[in-house]
Amino acid sequence: MHCVIVGASHAAAQLVASLRQLGWTGPITLIGEEALLPFQRPPLSKAFLSGELAEDKLLIRPASAYEKLDVTLRLACKVISIDRDHKQLKLSDGELLNYDKLVLCTGARPRLLPLSGAHLPEVHYLRSAEDSKCIQKQFKKNMRVVVIGGGYIGLETAASLNKLGADVTVLEAGDRILQRVTASDVSDFYCNKHQREGVKVLSKVQLESIKGEHKVEAVLCADGRVLPADMVIIGIGVIPNTELAEAAGLSIDNGIVVDEQGRSSDMDIFSAGDCCSYPHPKLNSQVRLESVPSANDTARIIASTLCNKPLPNIEHPWFWSDQYDVKLQIAGFNMGYSDYVVRGNPEEENFSVWYFKAKRLIAADCINRPKDFMAAKQLLKLGYSATVEDLANDELELKELIELAKLSVK
Fold first, then answer.
1. What pTM value is reported for the model?
2. What span, in angstroms and rounded, lies between the C-alpha atoms of 16 and 396?
3. How far is residue 365's CA from residue 190's CA, in Å, rounded to a whole number?
4. Is the C or the N end of the chain the one with fewer CB within 10 Å?
5. Is the pLDDT score of 385 beyond 80?
6. Domains of the chain, first to last
């Protein structure tokens, strides 16, 4: 049988490898809109943007790996439509391509900001390698850069450009940066860190327009403040690419809805990565997660389903962010947390924040604390909920809690 994968993403790269590893012998075709082989997106706002990582190092696998896996690559090619009745794809070059099993790994795209002046050539979003290269091409030292959006992408971009010598200002519409994803202690830490590094961070900012006739000159705020700018970078979240699936009549709800086997509302069409909403076995809810580990997990689920193998063990979600010399590692998913506790000292740039929901441990943010991160992953895996009081005691070794957790599951 012919498996066609749409979207040259992290999920797609994992899927082709897992399919072959689990015994899929039929043809595999991988279709991607970008000319580049499947590549890592996280470095686009970090090491690649700052010039520390070459383009060939972005690739998840070299071209030779796809040859070895016997995968037909169709890059710089777009799927126009899906004909489910005839199990056929219409491609941008007019070709009709048949499939037996179809996997949609179409990812997500930046959420656009409907703002006057957003069309100017120095206004950028950051999602593709071309986006990052365009920013690099226009960048000049001492350039005034305004970053709109105080989420991870915006802050990582601000840190990278600041290191290159830009005069950076971050604008956040909410009460604090990272408001949707972290506790206030983490927000305060990153706000202070960026300001110490020379980045200006402004919260509760509503925007009026981006000023400039032929090029960016300033960002105008609703309260009348004018922020001079030579470049604007917008990072206000992403939207899953579901249009192809929706036009084909598949079920959509904050992503392409799939079951525990990765299957959509069509039994021969599957979906993985940022574009899909799936029932996470550890979260007991239907979620759409924007992360590399989630992309790999959903791809491995589909490969197991297609090859009639037992479904893989899926651990709790995890994420990371690199800004300056600070490494944030996140274990679990803190959505809906009701309480949290801090271990360590934020002023020493070495601490962790542990989140609870109904007195049960659900996640931890670990700043320059890799041992805490590994401990959090273990505690979540074991299903042991340490108390707020336990974790508030920084002198209590986490390994003691892990031993207790192991005893509790015997």
1. 0.94
2. 45
3. 12
4. C
5. no
6. 3-43+58-109+238-306 (3.50.50.60), 112-234 (3.50.50.60), 325-408 (3.30.390.30)
